């Protein structure tokens, strides 16, 4: 994939600065960016994820927010990975140009949808839930703690997953971001892809409904 650019350590616009030392992170207790405008442009299916269904995931490791590394190809049983462009930082001003990009806004609502549905997803047989973006691990650790996410976030700052899976991406302020999507993985193989995802806060419900249907028809 040509022209991909690794995310800079900080690309927050007018955001609060996030320290590289996670122990020094500070943020308000109130949740940030948990809603989105009703008139956001809807993303269209450009076919950029069509190749993913039934793909066997090649081996690569991504750093997780718990300090461990995760190789998606080595996961047994049923897993769900949802991808998102970037979560906003506490105090960050969301600009009109970001809102104007179809599918860009709503990363925190998407993550929170999986937080709220985590127990039901596990009840449907999901062993692992991961969120993934090209933001770095300290940034993701702050988002995980602030939003009380009961699962780990994976950093593809190195673009390993983007390149290995040829994921749909877009450029914003000279940074490569993953388009919003989610994948159901069974024993290292992608069995279902949800792309595009809209509205973002219904991402987990889409996955849940598909798993329920699959379970009923099994």
Automatic annotation (TrEMBL):
GO terms for biological process: cell redox homeostasis; cellular response to oxidative stress. Keywords: Antioxidant, Disulfide bond, Oxidoreductase, Peroxidase, Redox-active center. SUPFAM superfamilies: Thioredoxin-like. Pfam families: Redoxin. One of its GO terms (molecular function) is thioredoxin peroxidase activity. Transmembrane segments: none annotated. Residues 51-216 form the Thioredoxin domain. GO terms for cellular component: cytoplasm. InterPro entries: Peroxiredoxin_BCP/PrxQ, Redoxin, Thioredoxin-like_sf, Thioredoxin_domain. It comes from the Eukaryota. Belongs to the peroxiredoxin family. Prx5 subfamily. This is Thioredoxin domain-containing protein.
